[in-house]
Amino acid sequence: MGHIKYYTFMIVIVCFVMFLSACNNLNTSSNNKNEIKTENHNSINFAKTSEEKEEVDWKEVNENGVDEALLIKNIDEETLTYIAQQLQDVCKEIDEKGQKDKNYWLTGQWYNDVVNSKQYNNVVSLGEKAMKPLFLIIYKSEKTGMYEWVCSKALTEISGFDFSGENDGAGWRNSKEFLEMFIDKIIEKRN
Predict the structure, then answer these.
(1) Cα–Cα dist 153/13, whole Å
(2) Which of 19, 28, 56, 103 is deepest in the core (most CB within 10 A)?
(3) Residue 173 forms beta bridges with which residues?
C-alpha cells in the first residue's frame, strides 16, 4: 500500500513539474495582429475530404536525422504562428485552473480540458497542414512540458500513428520520446 502511494505521489510531482516547465515560457502578450490571424484562420476550412487527402511528404526526415533548414523552408509561417498561439493559450488556461485548484492536477480533468478545448480542436482540424509546424515546435523545443505534450498529442491524432504498443503498452512518455518514435514511423512507412 505504501508503494502505491509513493508511486502515485511521484507521478503527480513529475506531471506537475513537466506542466510548469512548458507553461512558464508562454508568450502571454497579444495584439490585434495575432487576433486577426486567428480569426482569419477560423474562417477558412482546412479540412480535406478523404478523396482530397494526400500523404505528407517528409523529405526533411531521413535515416541521418532531420534537415532543419528544409523543414523551416517548407513550413507556412502563418500556420506555425497560429498553431503556437492556439496551443499556448490552452496551456495558459490549464495552468490558471491548476493554480486556482491544486487538486485539479490529481483528477485528470486537465487532460479532458486540453483535448476538448476549442484551441486544440482548431489545431487538429487543420489536419495535415498542421503536421510539419507541430513537428518543428517539438523538434526545436528544449523542454518536455505541457506545451510540448499538447503538440505531441495533436500530431499523434492528426497523423493517425499508433504508439500504443510502445513502452509495454504505455506509449510515449514525453515529447522527446514521441519525436524519436514519430521519426522512426516516418522512416518505416517510407521503406
Answers:
(1) 21
(2) 19
(3) none
Alpha-carbon gap, residue 174 to 146, rounded angstroms: 9
Strand partners of residue 175: none
Residue 53 identity (one-letter amino acid): K
pTM above 0.85, yes or no: no
Among 142, 140, 121, 141, CA closest to 130:
121
Write out the three cell numbers for 188: 518505416
Residue 114, Cβ density class (10 Å: 0-12 exposed, 13-18 middle, ≥19 buried): buried
| AA letter at 38 | T
